[in-house]
Amino acid sequence: MVLTGLIKKLGHQLAEIRERALQSILSKVEHNLICYADLIQERLLFLRLLEWFNFPSVPMKEEVLNLLNRLVKYPPAVQHLVDLGAVEFLSNLRSNVEPNLQAEIDGILDGLFILPSEVPALCSASYHTDQTELSKQPEILTGYFPQDKSNFQQMEVPPRPMVNQIVKCLKFSTFPWLPLTTTDRHVLSSNESSLRSSNHTLIWNTCELLKDVIMQDFPAEIFLQRPKIVQSLLSLLKLAFGGDGKHRLALQSVSCLQQLCTYLRNRLNFHRDPGFFSNKQDTVSQNSSLSYCHEARGTHHSQNPSPGSSSPRPSVVGRTGQRLRGDGQDWDAGSSSGSSSHAHINSRISVHSPLDMGHVDLPELETEDTLELQFQQLSLPQFCVSILESAVPLLRTGSRQMIIRVLELLAEDMILIGEALSADIWDDSSLFAIDMKEKLLLVLGSLGETMGYHKSSISLEQPEVMVVHHRMAFISISLFAVRLLQMLLPVEKASEFLPEPMSAALFLLSLDMPISLEYPNIHEAVVAYLEQLNSENYSIYKRTAEAVYSIECTCNFLSDVGKEGEKNLLELVELADQALRSFSYHQHFPLIKEIICICSKIWKSAQASPLLQGESQKVFLHMLSHPLPEVRVETYHCCLEIIKECLGVYNVTKPVSSLCNGIHFLLHPKVLYEISAFGIQEPKSEVCQMT
What we know:
It holds the Pfam family RTTN_N. One of its GO terms (biological process) is centriole-centriole cohesion. Residues 16-112 form the Rotatin N-terminal domain. Residues 296-344 are annotated as: Disordered. The protein is mainly alpha-helical. Helices cover 63% and strands 0% of the residues. The protein is elongated and about 115 Å long. 32% of the residues are buried.
């Protein structure tokens, strides 16, 4: 059966025949009986592959999308798909398939929007041959399916390795494309030019208009599909370090971008489940599908509405009714009274603003080239990373208000990043993923430097207000940085990718006790990353953590010993053992006497358990052989004082048995051996004299 026959069967009404035809094509490709040079010349194949999803029964969806994903790497295939309207078709199909298939569709769409710099090899390795071999073996040109020789030679390219362009790291790429009416384009164009003005007042007012009107009237994805306004807002962030009130414009830009992130999140939720998502709190909102359906039924009979009855705000999707809003709702609020609705709209448009245009005086705009615009649009991951690149440097400003506002923007942006990118980005070798990785690593490096800057700026020489500013900035930025790492970078890949400034910042963060106490989960994550990054720093952290814990045990031991009433002796012995490990740091000598008194008390009691006696003896022997000479001297001195107290002349009238109980802990063979073998030989003369 020739290839054309198999392709025709892809459109058969019976699902079984369609499946067998597809399996046959895939099998022939796998066994090199067909190469991609055969497939990409068949325009009908692409039509049948797209129509595959229009049948009531759609088997082998993943195989069809995977085949399209492989074919879209070749310019002839891209041209066929674009001519057939595949961009719009796949954008609409995306919301109707499972999440794992959405990534395949995103890869196809990305391939359609990438201008190839060179033509990929069309055939598998078995088809790579030079021109001389072709001339000697004309029968190869016929192939499994006969072709015209001239066409085949035109398609030939020098053999080279094929580049895998499948993007695996995308959770969400682009929103379905929305066309704009001329009036809508004028609105956006006016605001774009206003944001590029040198008049600060005009820029300020334009930002206010964007927040209060434009972003609520347009679906949020419009600003990614036509990104000039977003690019202007990102440029305004650079004014944060300027004087003469320029930083106020940067704050306005931050506010606009934060609101756009919120609306994009709403639109993302809406596209996932249009029937369920609503950000209104009432039971049935004015913008709900119920009110819209009621309105639609009321006007269904009118096929040619008069100008007076139509909405004065044209639709962004080419409809004559009300258009999509940026708040995640399908339609603008419907009014029970047409006159009141018109009055509300007219009153809003009458405000002096870039929207204040006459219907006759609109300047002419060029006809839109949809394909070119789609090449220029920002995907959701690109938008999110652009905000990170532009906003993170602002965290080093001296303005507390700026840092707070930027962190609020970054918090919204981080939510979108989690919805758009997966941790698979570090294993993804596509050009898109490589570009995203490079930008993310620069952002992480900048975050690490910023954390180090605020940490090093905390000193007693500075005024208290500046100390508080830098401390709060360090804590807040650290929390954001660690949460971003947890979202994007698996712990096991930290040593391979994490920049040195962030590694140094995580080390500082691991030693910050207030943060470890207030945010234990964040602290655990930091330690996990540190363990993978730098064994030396991790060792320092471990020793520091042990010393801190030992000092804490010291305080708890001294506190419990001083309390009246019954004491848990085993717990006290455990605390004493831990407390001795940090003695070289705190050198609190009263601790030695308290521990020896506890040991004496335990051995004095006839009811003491062997376990308790054994544990207390280990602690006492540790003190007798402690590496610090001062500890050994104090231990022998305290023992001598106890012996004098028990066997002193003033105790001559007391029974001998009761007197000896207090020094029972010294009479054990292990203790006597330690004293006779090492105490007498002690280089310190104080110890020798006491033994």
